[in-house]
Amino acid sequence: MFSETRYSTSPKDIPHFTNERLREEFLIESLFIPDQLQMVYSHIDRMIVGGYLAVEKTGDISDGSAVGTPGFFDAREMGIVNLGGTGTVVVDENTYIVEHRDVVYVGRETKSVRMSSKDPSNPAAFYMNSVPAGYPVPSALIRQADSKPVTMGDEEHANKRTLRMYIHPEVSPSCLLLMGITEPAPGSIWNTEPPHVHERRMEAYVYFNMAPEDRVMHFMGEPSQIRNIVVADRQAVLSPAWSIHMGAGTGPYCFVWGMTGENKAYNDVQPVAVKDLL
Ligand SMILES: O=C(O)C(=O)C[C@H](O)C(=O)CO
Ligand SMILES: [Zn+2]
């Protein structure tokens, strides 16, 4: 089921990494291959990052042998974000019509998830984050209109953006998964400023709605050892608890952020002033 398994990395290793090694550890390049479920198992808080580009076939997630339980969701929850055209997600007996930027929450003890597209010429692109969950929460469709928007930053710093919370205690509950989508305002290029670390949670990003020729310069690492990863459309990045994360795009972009760890306290973060980055 997993195209790759990634193990955890110590921040002490980062100064010794080549660019290739940095990309190998933290960048996930190919999540959207027509009709092939792509799943990367990360040992960073055991988050699974997945993608399914539904063209002709229906993608199915039910078998748990790869995670060591009879069913995939016997001890896991998942968030599914549609980055593409209209699709359908069937979670056991519930059928959800999922538009671009809608999110489906799948709770622990779900038996099966089936994903398909309405129109193969404009396929749905389902992006997934799945993490261990201690108790079941009912599955739900969270439409963009139901998400909670928060506007941050300003034009002077080119970091004005709208962050939308979807899987979040104030919007739609989960066990330990948090997910949302951030979009910079036209002309703003920076996300997540000031940067921060969150010692008690890891994070994964997928960048999307980018022109093929554009790139996001994603910055990561301990505040005193900043590195960058060049990221293209629909590529994902893993962000360990010890790493800052911020990025600047050469053109318009959006990104999905997903987090898990000890808590769901979105504000349990330690900001780092840009002037302190080295
Ligand atoms: O632009 C932002 O700021 C974000 O989107 C922040 C992420 O949600 C994040 O890093 C949450 O910890
Ligand atoms: Zn963060």
From TrEMBL:
SUPFAM superfamilies: RmlC-like cupins
Keyword Metal-binding attributed: yes
GO terms classed as biological process: D-galacturonate catabolic process; D-glucuronate catabolic process; pectin catabolic process
Pathway(s) the chain acts in: Glycan metabolism; pectin degradation; 2-dehydro-3-deoxy-D-gluconate from pectin: step 4/5
E.C. numbers: 5.3.1.17
Keyword tags: Isomerase, Metal-binding, Zinc
Needed co-factor(s): Zn(2+)
Classification via InterPro entries: KduI, KduI/IolB_isomerase, KduI_N, RmlC-like_jellyroll, RmlC_Cupin_sf
Top-level taxon: Bacteria
Catalytic activity: 5-dehydro-4-deoxy-D-glucuronate = 3-deoxy-D-glycero-2,5-hexodiulosonate
GO MF annotations, alphabetized: 4-deoxy-L-threo-5-hexosulose-uronate ketol-isomerase activity; metal ion binding
Enzyme class: isomerase
Family of the protein in this entry: Belongs to the KduI family.
Protein name as catalogued: 5-dehydro-4-deoxy-D-glucuronate isomerase
Species in which this protein is naturally found: Martelella mediterranea
